[in-house]
Amino acid sequence: SYDQNIKEIADKDKRYLWHAMQPYNEQSQPMVVTEGKGSWITDMNGNRYLDAMSGLWCVNVGYGREELAKAAYEQLTKMPYYPLTQSHLPAVQLAEKLNEWLEDEYVIFFSNSGSEANETAFKIARQYHQQTGGHSRYKFVSRYRAYHGNSMGALAATGQAQRKYKYEPLGNGFVHVRPPDSYRRPAGMSTEQFQRFCAREIEETILWEGKESVAAVIMEPAITGGGVIVPDPIYMKEVESICKRHGVLLIIDEVICGFGRSGEKFGHLNFGIKPDIVTMAKGLTSGYLPLSATAVRKEIYEAFKDQADYSYLRHVNTFGGTPASCALALKNLEIMEREQLVERSRMLGERLQTELQELLDHPLVGDIRRFGFLMGIELVLDKETKHPLPLADVTKVIADCKARGLIIGKNGDTVAGYNNVLTLSPPLSSTDEDVDFIVRTLKEVIYQQ
Ligand code: PMP
Questions:
Q1: Backbone dihedral region of 116: left (phi > 0), alpha (psi from -120 to 50 degrees) or beta?
Q2: Which residue stretches, if any, does this entry annotate as coiled coil (predicted)?
Q3: d(CA 187, CA 295)
Q4: From 362's CA, which of 138, 204, 239, 263 has a CA 20 to 30 Å away?
Q5: Residues 16 and 118 reside in one and the same domain
Q6: Do 332 and 438 fall into the same domain?
Q7: Rounded to the nearest 10 degrees, how much is the dihedral formed by the CA atoms of 397, 403, 406, 410?
Q8: Complex-level ipTM
Q9: Residue 330 is part of a domain; what is its CATH number?
Q10: Is residue 225 lining ligand 1, measured as CB closer than 6 Å?
Q11: 28: which strand partners?
């Protein structure tokens, strides 16, 4: 029978699949999803949910786009695979398209995941400095609370201790600075002073680490996975000029913020800065197939030209930029342009903020932060002390939302063991009714806590 079938799949799931970030115990039973359409997913039991996290911040154009499946199918039947030691049309076309989206001249190296895109960026940065005489530059500066990936280098750059301590030693030469979290700035400092102070800390770190030892600073335009920390433009401008002043490359991790999530094509375009390297994944294919990219400023690429021994990257990726993924990504970007989803993201984000603003009057809601159509709602026990709401209470909010058909996320100051920031990152293609549903459900749930 149908119920018997469901139970069998659940049992097999438990027996054969090792899940990410799920405890291994008798009670754990992940949702088995079967279908998606627009912003909604359906599980094996026929329950429907509005996925206000777009999976893991991925599905920018929404679920169930047949056009994307067709683009991949057609490419697979024509030419399924060739490595990018040589070339193929979808990769060339996509690299050109990404230049348009980046609004500047970049050369693109393709991989399969955000982590790999960041690893590639680190290797390019180190090799670039070797090439240009900066042999001592091998260190990377990143922020506490930021997530940059699961591989040893990207994890070393990650500033979340609880993800790291089981796997040490990680790569050498990764140092961390404080995130520009204005909500938790020291008493007596204005927001602007604090933002400048955080940028200054980066400069001091670059100097303290030793003369010309830092290769690059890596940061997201807004810290997403560590509690939705949105910097002031002044901070990003400062960081850009500090990097320039000290010959340090600026790597911007757009894995989550890219492709319209921030209300601009890329997050950094909100600040008018020009990164040396931009990494991207997730929204590049809206999650339909694996693909990531490391975009490198033309001038940096030029430093590799005619350098005998050094003129090529000693770095290859078997599946990176595989034709079907590139063809699908091109179609994905075409959909975003045709449906003006970047503009829609900005508009829906503004609406979400306006309509959720009144939640700030609730005793548990300490702060609401937003970067485009990506929101963080910080829950606290006490608005004066800002003591984070304990995990069990946050988990209840998430479960109450799910019981009403709304999936939201949580993250936060995970270094200290708190996950008190509710996160929203719905598909950019969400309908007005979808946003109504998110607002209504979230208010109902929070008002009854
Ligand atoms: N950078 C950021 C900002 C991310 O959020 C993630 C994934 N959540 C990554 C890198 C790593 O991407 P992936 O899981 O595709 O390796």
A1: alpha
A2: none
A3: 40
A4: 263
A5: no
A6: no
A7: 30
A8: 0.99
A9: 3.40.640.10
A10: yes
A11: none
